Amino acid sequence: MQLLAPGANTALANAHCSWNLESGTSSVFGEYAAVALLAVNEKRQPMGDPALLHQEQSWMEWSGGPQDVGCTLKLDRLPAGSDRVLLMVYVYAAMGPIRDFASLRLKVDADIEHRLDLRDNGEAAIIIGEFYKRNDQWKFRALSEGSA
């Protein structure tokens, strides 16, 4: 298993990948917080509707449940003009900071792992990863970017 720190990246095997996200707090997804995927261009401008827990897009499919959210991505089917997908976690209506999750553990294709300790994070939303294409190769970058 390859463990990535925020800012580190690695190549993906192909344009179809899957990921699984677990929270340190049980049953947080769907009740208190959610996950969103946003197809963007190189300037991070949205290039289509976001994928929300209650709204899939043609380039992805949700799986899992409140403790552990999963997704299959078809990166070669992103909307025209997009070359990356941002993976975000947010608290509904900014009801509180994401530090209430305690931690997040993301696994990509069962061989890449990204762990975040959120106990000191006061943000209501955070970008935890970015799937992107560079030189005809799909890659994943581990992130920890807050947003008010």
UniProtKB/TrEMBL annotation:
Q: Outline the extent of the TerD domain.
A: 68-147
The record's listing under InterPro entries reads: TerD
Q: Which domain of life is it from?
A: Bacteria
Name of the protein described by the UniProt record: Trypsin domain-containing protein
